[in-house]
Hints:
Elements: E1 2-4, E2 7-9, H1 21-25, E3 28-36, E4 39-40, H2 43-56, H3 65-77, E5 84-91, E6 108-115, H4 121-126, E7 128-134, H5 149-160, E8 165-170, E9 173-177, E10 181-186, E11 189-192, H6 203-214, E12 219-221, H7 226-230, E13 234-239, E14 243-250, E15 253-254, H8 262-279
Parallel strand pairs: 7-8, 7-14, 11-12
Antiparallel strand pairs: 1-2, 1-6, 3-4, 3-5, 5-6, 8-9, 10-11, 10-13, 13-14, 14-15
This protein binds N-(5'-phosphopyridoxyl)-D-alanine.
Amino acid sequence: MIYLNGKFMSIEEACIPVLDRGFIFGDGVYEVIPAYSRRPFRLTEHLSRLQHSLDGIRLKNPFSNEEWKNLLEQVIAKNDPEDQYLYLHITRGVAKRDHAFPINVPPTVFIMSNSLLPPPGELLSSGASAVTALDNRWIRCDVKAISLLPNVLLRQLAVDGHALETILLRDGFLTEGAASNIFIVKNQVLLAPPKSHLMLPGITYDVVLELAAANQISLEIREISEREVRTADEILLTSSTKEVMPITLLDDKPVGTGKPGDMFFQLHALYQQYKTTHMRGLPADNVKT
Length: 289
Ligand code: PDD
């Protein structure tokens, strides 16, 4: 069951007019929110990032946070899986094709749910491979825009190279993955690129930084050069659907020992523990709730 413009219906029934600006211009923003044991994870943070994206494209938020929470809970309740990921999408609505913003047009609001499966165990124990590419996206990558053509083309490079993700480099520095954030580890220090307009401020990225800080893991948030990426002891990938994953092969070369490293195992365990606390609705003692 999905939600579209005020109604719940099956995905097969859901239709969008061809003049929707999402279809014509990719004029909209989205969020992907995991729900574990039917509880939306980090909802406040996802909704504040949604507000940031809406502000970035000058589109008024159609709902208050309370209304969003209520809608998302209804979508979760109408779908079977205990663990779901919610996809929420807002466009600038339906109007005659014209680049200029339409006046007094209601936005299109769409929410769907899919089952959320944790990454397969083999991938966690052996690690995944990644390729690198030049980050040729626009310079508002902090906006979670539905116009994802550059990300789609960049991710396809990974698929073509039988890899999981494409790691992006701009002006010789690491930005993020085509659909994930990227960390590296050098000499037991976790290194993260600083948030900027050149990357999406990942919700999972924040959780990992908080877990690191709360568990005395050495951490540096600073620009990471291409050379540092290529000589890292470990590379870690994070996203709402992939959680924390080890990258053990980069452009066909082993990363460090070529096996998932200690930092990965430690952060992965802390992340699972944090998720469990969240699922039980308990306050987390190792990070903020
Ligand atoms: N993508 N960077 C980009 C470009 C992303 O698309 C994503 C997530 C992330 C990680 O953000 P978070 O930890 O909040 O999921 C970083 C989602 C999962 C997607 O588009 O499907």
